[in-house]
Design a protein that fits this description.
By secondary structure, the chain is α+β, with helices and mostly antiparallel strands. The protein has one domain (20-151): 2-Layer Sandwich (Beta-Lactamase), CATH 3.30.450.20. Helices cover 26% and strands 27% of the residues. The protein has helices at residues 19-35, 55-60, 66-69, 93-96, 100-107, and strands spanning 41-45, 50-53, 81-82, 111-117, 127-138, 141-151. Strands 2-1-6-5-4-3 form a 6-stranded antiparallel sheet. β5 (127-138) and β6 (141-151) form a beta hairpin. The longest helix is centred in the first third of the chain and has 17 residues, at 19-35. It is globular, with a radius of gyration of 17 Å. The two termini are 32 Å apart.
């Protein structure tokens, strides 16, 4: 039989500061977490620029190295998404607005869906990934989105 121990600790209360300092610190903490994560994940800001991406996320999404993607727009940084038809084509702008990282930004709610990512080389098969996104809030408004990916 497994043994599980739980412990309770005091609630963490952030120190008082300006709302800008608290917001940037929150986003900075998520950025650091995503950058060092073993899981495929991605953090984008409200302008859809990549703030942080894990190495596993770059590999799964065929983006190259994390340092090459950070600061670029999510859809302008090499991410190529295809539809699920027999003859795949790139997603239209209307379809792109519905992908989980962008839908979490626009709706302020959790978003989940499948993505078909075009492989980096013609020899490799395209990847299908399950994406789960949550908005990241700063001062009560959506400042970005955090997405975790899993290969299907």
């Amino acid at each position: 039989m497994a043994h599980v121990e739980l412990s309770l600790s005091e609630v963490f209360v952030p120190t008082a500061g300006t709302s800008t300092e608290q917001g940037s610190d929150n986003f900075g903490q998520w950025s650091s977490t995503v950058s060092h994560a073993d899981e495929p994940c991605l953090l984008i800001d409200a302008e859809t620029r990549v703030v942080a991406v894990s190495a596993a996320g770059c590999e799964l999404l065929c983006l190259g190295a994390p340092e090459d993607v950070v600061g670029l727009p999510l859809l302008g940084g090499g991410l190529r998404l295809l539809d699920f038809t027999a003859n795949p084509r790139e997603l239209t702008e209307q379809e792109l607005d519905k992908i989980p990282p962008l839908l979490a930004l626009s709706s302020g709610r959790l978003a989940r869906g499948l993505l078909r990512v075009q492989a980096a080389s013609a020899d490799a098969p395209d990847a299908t990934v399950d994406a789960i996104s949550t908005p990241v809030l700063t001062d009560g408004s959506v400042a970005g989105s955090l997405t975790f990916f899993s290969e299907v």
